[in-house]
Specification:
This protein is 6% helix and 65% strand. The chain has 2 domains: 95 residues, no CATH class; 214 residues, Beta Barrel (Porin), CATH 2.40.160.40. It starts with a helix and ends with a strand. Strand 17 and strand 18 form a beta hairpin. It is mostly beta strands. The chain has 1 helix and 22 strands. The protein has a 12-stranded antiparallel barrel.
């Protein structure tokens, strides 16, 4: 009798442990290892899984032999068919899908699965990111100065398309007199031919009263390569042809075809939420290489509270053929606070 009382709690505990273990997703690798946790998603040859013992782990899809989930997931197959359901145990190299309590599909080869829990832009949706930053400095008394900076950008991304729209404004006054007054507006459309290659159309508008530029307009086409795209790191390089039209207040107007290049890079520093960024683009005249200008932005974004971030930024601009009486280079040191999403 004692033995029965002793074995009963152990048996009950083993049943509880067994039942709780079934409440987790499980994959079996080609080498026989088993990993339990929660499937985050699969894209390319990478399956991401959240585990209670090692956090998020990345597994090569080619090394997965079997997969089963406790809850429904969304999958996209190589023929672009899409279905929701729970993944069930199946013969090696395949999976079965139960779309509800009564319907079960036949085995599907794992090689046909292109996505599990695809990101919104892949599944026909739109991902929108953006920022609105504001910096103000007002000094009164022995010094009477006012400085204002604003920049904003919105990026909307679908699977094949990306739209970017942005603006920058800087103004400084000293004893009631403007000492800086410039504005930049830009727009770009990217169409992805493949996962990383894309073509683009871009427009850039710039005015600066103190550089004698009433309006500089650039319109162009080109191609780019997205080396890296992820929530924590992005890197792209672009090149193309543009038409530049420069309208001056005093100097003689100018217009010319040009070649354009740009680099856009951002990355979170280590495991922190501090983000380093660098962007630059340059234009060089095709009929006269002296017609050359460049603009760059480099800095660090530091989280403050939820979506609020502080930005410490250094801008360097170069105009190789400035209007008479103005300088080639412009530098700015900016500190701003903004909302990022």
């Amino acid at each position: 009798m004692r033995r029965k009382h002793t074995l009963a709690p152990l048996l009950a505990m083993s049943l509880v442990l067994a039942s709780t273990s079934t409440l987790a997703d499980e994959i079996v690798l080609e080498n026989g290892d088993r990993i339990t946790g929660t499937v985050i998603g699969k894209e390319g040859d990478t399956l991401k899984m959240d585990t209670p013992y090692a956090g998020t782990v990345e597994i090569k899809w080619s090394q997965v032999k079997r997969i089963a989930t406790d809850k429904a997931v969304r999958i996209i197959l190589e023929d672009d068919s899409r279905v929701n359901g729970t993944l069930l145990e199946a013969p090696d190299g395949s999976l079965r899908l139960r779309s509800d309590d009564t319907i079960e599909g036949g085995p599907i080869p794992l090689a046909r699965v292109t996505y599990i829990n695809p990101p919104p832009e892949v599944d026909g949706g739109v991902i929108s990111t953006g920022k609105l930053n504001l910096g103000i400095n007002i000094s009164k008394g022995n010094t009477d100065t006012e400085d204002a900076h604003f920049d904003g950008e919105v990026v909307a991304r679908t699977l094949k398309n990306r739209f970017t729209l942005g603006a920058i404004f800087n103004r400084s006054r000293s004893y009631g007199v403007d000492t800086k007054n410039d504005a930049t507006g830009y727009a770009k459309y990217d169409h992805f031919l493949e996962e990383k290659w894309y073509t683009y159309a871009n427009a850039l508008f710039f005015r600066d009263k103190f550089k004698d530029i009433r309006m500089r307009t650039t319109l162009g086409l080109g191609s780019g390569y997205q080396f890296v795209t992820s929530p924590r790191k992005n890197l792209s390089l672009e090149g193309g042809l543009n038409y530049v039209n420069e309208d001056y207040y005093v100097a003689e107007d100018n217009a010319y075809p040009s070649a354009r290049w740009s680099l856009n890079y951002d990355q979170y520093i280590g495991q922190t939420e501090m983000q380093f960024f660098h962007f630059h683009e340059g234009y060089i005249g095709l009929t006269n290489a002296e017609d050359f200008f460049l603009r760059t932005q480099t800095g660090v974004r530091v989280p403050l509270w939820e979506a609020l971030k502080a930005t410490f930024q250094f801008d360097f601009d170069w105009d190789n053929t400035p209007s008479p009486g103005t300088q080639e280079d412009d530098t700015r040191y900016l500190i701003s606070i903004g909302y990022h999403w």
